[in-house]
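Why does residue order matter? Because the sequence determines the fold. Keep that principle in mind as you read this record.
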Amino acid sequence: MEDVIVVGAGPAGLWLAAELRRAGVPVLVLERAEAPSPHSKALTLHPRMIEVLAMRGMARDFLDEGVMLPSGHFGLLESRLDFRPLPTRHPYTLFFPQRRTEELLERRAAELGARVRRGHTVTALAQDGEGVELTVTGPDGPYEVRARYVAGCDGAGSTVRQAAGIGFPGTDATVYGFLGDVTLDDPPQGPLSAHTADGGVMVVGMPGGHHRIVGLLPGPVDAAAELTLDELRAAVVRVIGRDLGMRDPLWLSRFGNASRQAATYRAGRVVLAGDAAHMHFPAGGVGLNVGVQDAMNLGWRLAAVVSGRAPESLLDDYHAERHPVGADLLESSQAQTALMTAFTPAGQALRALLGKLIAAHPALSLDLAARLAALNVAYPPADPAAHPLTGARVPDLPLRDGGTVYELLYEARHVLLDLGAGPGSMPRAVAGHARDLGATVHKGALADDADEWWREIRALLIRPDGHVHWATT
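Structure:
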């Protein structure tokens, strides 16, 4: 019997596999595709995603290849959101193709000992009190494999979710956008976005010299018809007046605004993460980011339960923390979709007013940027008497010895950061939790340039996903 089987070798599944291996848990990944996709649905890594990479010592691999942008958009509004004031070492978005993201994540998962089988399609699932039985069709025919736990990271059409009987309520697509990765002989000097009564278009450069064009037009769309280069060219000319010399498409596609979320992220010995747990219009380019952050929250929990260091209720806490984040994601995506499809005179007036408000009120711009960046995510503590920082995101605080907090999290273990209080300052229950989960202790002090309100803390118990479990002043 396998300890954990992860179904799906996308970003969420690969990150989860690596997290399990960091904790010493054997893991098998089953992926139905025979080879990774040559196309990149996602292009944008947001600040919290880069922080997640930094917590595992992987950020540099991405920063060396990606293209940094200090701003982002909300609903294709003309006034862009300035990421530079965000309280992070990474106040920017990073253009980085999903194809390359998956290559790097799969390489790290394999280095850690994860086994990835491609061309293996899960067709059925049955679970009992002891484990989960999967029926799989592989290159050599059908077979069955059993695991103590199964993680469904197999996309919006998740077989795991459906077979586990988990509902996926929401709404069907009513709006369809278009996407083209093309060569441009007359490209814009930088990212270009335009929104008029005739439609909305955004053009961004990609590594390798190609450009991605995405957008929407008013009016009905035949969603079943394949997008053609002539159709893409006509749409761009309609909105911006010229075709930018587009030719030689690498990929042409349509996408809709279907919006759904799993009723529960856990059903017995089955858990969900990424697109298997939530689907939405790709507004703001946050989907991949949220999926990996699901896996970051789930990985240490699942490892602790499988290894017998924590009760199964720890997996219920995964749903309690991440389901609201998914709900916020759908709300934001739907709101941005409404703005992007506001082609009427009234809609254009709404867009103009919101753009003026963002430009005139930096606090509003910063709040929207923090939401897109996922720097605002905090998990409410179960105990109302807990320290106010409990559940909060820990920034990459500088330490007086020259290191940083995120460097202490490389091994994906709980860390007790003793800033003068001593381990004896922890309540007995917290100390027991830390001991059971194999927390490491680091004694030291924050550097003088650390944020002032963090310097009041005398001890922090930091979870492997970079959130506060316990704090004292």
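Residues 313-340 form the longest helix (28 residues).
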